[in-house]
Amino acid sequence: MFGRSLGDDADEEVHIDLSPMIDCIFILLIFFIVTTVFVDETGVKVNKPDSGGAASALDSNSILLAVTAEDKVFYSGESIGVQGVLSKIKPSLIETPDMPVIIQGDKEASHGIVQQVHAQAILAGAQKERISVSLK
């Protein structure tokens, strides 16, 4: 029946098969690796104007550009200037044409610089309806 009887040979070794448990661990590991989302930060802290309570969710698959109070433009923690916007974001937009572009402008930044960054993003191939300026 079930289990061992007293008459069984006592020298017989009992083995625990860990293969199914290891398979489950690897399946979970692969699942978590595939579903992980990485957010690309701009690399600088921007003092943004008060949005008046409007909430906006950032898409994890978006291009983030930051304009500081000193009118410097940053992308992925690197100062690129207004002229560098086109060359930095164009490859991403060629790969994914409908990728949103989010411009984070400091409240002390010049409006003209933010507009120039916006114009460069459009020249790079960003769709007008997929560009937003973060006011949060």
Provide a descriptive summary of the structure in words:
- 32% of the residues lie in helices and 14% in strands.
- Mean pLDDT is 80; it is low at 51-57.
- With 136 residues, the chain is an alpha/beta fold.
- It has a 5-stranded mixed sheet, with helices on one face.
- Strand 1 and strand 2 (73-75) form a beta hairpin.
- Helix 2 packs across helix 3 (111-124).
- The protein contains 3 helices and 5 strands, in the order H-E-E-E-H-E-H-E.
- The protein has helices spanning 19-35, 84-95, 111-124, and strands spanning 63-67, 73-75, 78-79, 101-105, 131-134.
- The chain has a domain at 63-134: 2-Layer Sandwich (Nucleotidyltransferase, domain 5).
User: Which spans of ≥5 residues are poorly predicted at pLDDT below 50?
Assistant: 51-57
Q: Supply the helix-strand structural class.
A: alpha/beta
* Overall mean confidence score, pLDDT: 80
Distance between the termini: 70 Å
Helix-strand pattern = HEEEHEHE
Per CATH, the architecture of the domain at 63-134 is: 2-Layer Sandwich
- CATH class bucket of the domain at 63-134: Alpha Beta
How many E-type strands?
5
Outline, from the CA principal axes?
A: elongated
- Radius of gyration, rounded? 27 Å
How is the biggest beta sheet arranged?
5 strands, mixed
Helix count from the secondary structure assignment: 3
